[in-house]
Amino acid sequence: MWLRRDEAAREFAAWEIISVTLSLLLLIWVVLPLSGNSKSVGAAFIAVCFAFMLASHRLHGETRREIGWRCDNFLAAMGWVVLLICFFAIPLTIGAWLLVSGSDASISETGKLFGDGEIDLSNGAQLFWQLAMIFSGLAQQYLMQGFINRRAQIVFGRGPVSVLVVGLIFTLLHLPNKWLMLAAFVEGLGWAFIFQRVPNLFALAVSHAVMTRLIIILIPDHFLQGLRIGYRFFN
Questions:
Q1: Closest by Cα among 183, 186, 190 to 213
Q2: Measuring CA to CA, which residue among 123, 114, 152 is closest to residue 232?
Q3: What are phi and psi of 68, to 5 degrees?
Q4: CB neighbourhood size of 182 (10 A)
Q5: Which of 31, 75, 167, 186 makes the best surface tag, with the fewest CB within 10 Å?
């Protein structure tokens, strides 16, 4: 009886992962292109996905602390985050130097964020974009860790398999931008690993913003393609 319940729970969690992942791919590749990249359509679609995830949390009886909405372990999580940022920044800097040395591009603090025009990260709008990156990172970390990571642990258990699943899904959502996919895979594995040990979404959001900023600063936009993903990558 208990074995059948556990098996049913794993199957249900697997379908939840598949449903949310396919919904996001549908948004990126079909809904947004057909709507002319309408922000209102995108926001409505995402709102439905988040409503589904909130309902799932209630169904599974998950608390805010379990999901990662907490502050008591923030400093502990930041300790892991600092290690991840250092681990990420060193090869990123070396890779950026190699890319620049082999092309006419140059490293600068001017990049494209979300593919919409140029943003000078040194002007007065810097604070706004930093906050925007933190908020975007928080939303993505809630999706990937608070939901997908927890569901992956139900299916595969806590450990390397569920961490790898989270990393692969995060990479898949950055198709077909190969440089972002590479960064997403490394970051996704690191964030999933940290979350399973110290579940804190706020610390991960900070690291998400910092690592995105590092990518924008160090990698020339010629390679990043304005951070575009999905159908927009080809525009």
A1: 183
A2: 114
A3: 115, 5
A4: 14
A5: 75
User: How many CA atoms, within 13 angstroms, populate the side-chain half-sphere of residue 3?
Assistant: 0
Residue type at position 79 = G
The predicted structure's pLDDT at residue 161: 98
Mean pLDDT (10-residue bins), the chain, 235 residues: 73 96 95 89 91 95 96 96 90 75 51 42 59 84 97 96 98 94 94 98 94 85 83 84
How would DSSP label each residue in 42-78? Answer: HHHHHHHHHHHHHHHHHHHT--HHHHT--STTHHHHH
Q: What is the pLDDT of residue 174?
A: 96
Q: What is the pLDDT of residue 128?
A: 64
Residues in the chain: 235
What pLDDT does 225 receive? 82
Q: Which amino acid is at 227?
A: L
pLDDT of res. 95: 74
Question: Residue 4: is it exposed, middle or buried by C-beta count within 10 angstroms (0-12/13-18/19+)?
Answer: exposed
The sign of the dihedral angle between the CA atoms of 178, 182, 183, 184 is: positive
Which residues are CB-neighbours of 90 under 8 A, at least 6 positions away? none
Q: Residue 169: what residue type?
A: I
Q: CA–CA separation, 27 vs 21, rounded Å?
A: 10
The pair of structure tokens assigned to 185 is: 């895979």
